[in-house]
Design goal:
heterodimer, A: 109 residues, mainly beta, globular, B: 118 residues, four-stranded antiparallel sheet, 0% helix, 50% strand
Chain lengths: 109, 118
C-alpha cells in the first residue's frame, strides 16, 4: 500500500502559473496512472487530467499533468490562472483500488 | 452522455445500515467497458474510495472497510447500490457514485449527504 501526499494549500495571482505536487510514498509513480480532480465548493469532483497527462474534452489546455520519476511524484500545472480555478485539487492513483491524495486548496488572489 | 444520480436516506441511526443507490443513464452498467465505484467525503475532508463493481459481477473493496461494505447491482434498472453496516458518526459524509476505467473514476454523480445520528 502507498499514500499520495499533496501540499495542503497553494496560492498564486491571476495570470500566473502554479504547480501542485503529488508524491507517492512507496513503489514507483510510473507503475500506475495518476489522475487529477478539481472540486469547487459545494460541487462534485470533475476530472481535469487522466492517465498522467491527458485532458478530457472541455478542459482548457492551461491544465497539464506530468510525472517525475526522480522525485517519485506527479504534478498538475495550471497556467494563466483565473479566479475560476480556485478550488480543491486531488491526485489519485491505483493500488488494487483507487487511492486519493489529501487534496490541495488552490487560492487565486 | 452518461449521468449518475445517487439516492437514499439522508439520515441513518448509529449501528444501522446505510443503503444508497446509484441510477445510471446514458450507459449500461453491464456494457463491460467501465468500473462503477462508490466514493465518500466527510465534511471538510478528503476523498475515500469505498469499493466498486464490474459488469462480470466482480467487486472489490477498500480493505479498511471491507468487513462492512457490500456493493451490488440491479441490471434491470441499470442501478448499483452500496450497503454499509454498523454505521457510526464517522460514516457521515457526502457519498458519490462514479464511473471509470480500471485505475480511475472519471465521471461522478452530484453526491448525496448522509448523516449518522440518533
Amino acid at each position: 500500500n502507498f499514500m499520495l501526499t499533496q501540499p495542503h494549500s497553494v496560492s498564486e495571482s491571476p495570470g500566473k502559473t502554479v504547480i501542485i505536487s503529488c508524491t507517492r510514498s512507496s513503489g514507483s509513480i510510473t507503475s500506475n496512472y495518476v489522475q487529477w480532480y478539481q472540486q469547487r465548493p459545494g460541487s462534485a469532483p470533475t476530472t481535469v487530467i487522466y492517465e498522467d497527462n491527458h485532458r478530457p474534452s472541455g478542459v482548457p489546455d492551461r491544465f497539464s499533468g506530468s510525472i517525475d520519476s526522480s522525485s517519485n511524484s506527479a504534478s498538475l500545472t495550471i497556467s494563466g490562472l483565473k479566479t475560476e480555478d480556485e478550488a480543491d485539487y486531488y491526485c489519485q492513483s491505483y493500488d488494487g483500488g483507487l487511492v486519493f491524495g489529501g487534496g490541495t486548496k488552490l487560492t487565486v488572489l | 452522455q452518461v449521468q449518475l444520480q445517487e439516492s437514499g436516506p439522508g439520515l441513518v441511526k448509529p449501528s444501522q445500515t446505510l443503503s444508497l443507490t446509484c441510477t445510471v443513464s446514458g450507459d449500461s452498467i453491464i456494457s463491460g467497458s467501465f468500473y462503477w465505484s462508490w466514493i465518500r467525503q466527510p465534511a471538510g475532508k478528503g476523498l475515500e474510495w469505498l469499493g466498486r463493481f464490474y459488469s462480470s459481477g466482480y467487486t472489490n473493496y477498500n480493505p479498511s472497510l471491507m468487513s462492512r461494505v457490500t456493493i451490488s447491482s440491479d441490471t434491470s434498472k441499470n442501478q448499483f447500490s452500496l450497503r454499509l453496516n454498523y454505521v457510526t458518526a464517522a460514516d457521515s459524509a457526502v457519498y458519490y457514485c462514479a464511473r471509470g476505467a480500471l485505475e480511475m473514476a472519471t465521471v461522478w454523480g452530484r453526491g448525496t449527504q448522509v448523516t449518522v445520528s440518533s
